[in-house]
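Render Glyoxylate/hydroxypyruvate reductase B in 3D.
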Amino acid sequence: MDDEPPKASNPLLAIENLLLTPHNAALTSDAKIRMALFAAQGIDEVLSGKTPSWPVNNPPVPRASMEVL
């Protein structure tokens, strides 16, 4: 939702079998652990000279060209 809480006129609220959750629904203990592990894995990959599994800004540039940049 762009606006939280949604306005009463939002058509989604008229759907009887729709479940809406707050933005923080993904912040479970398991999710936090996975985020930390994935971040550590990405750091390890970069420091080992590998391409990270989940790059944030993955430029369409060959690795050899990136080293020159």
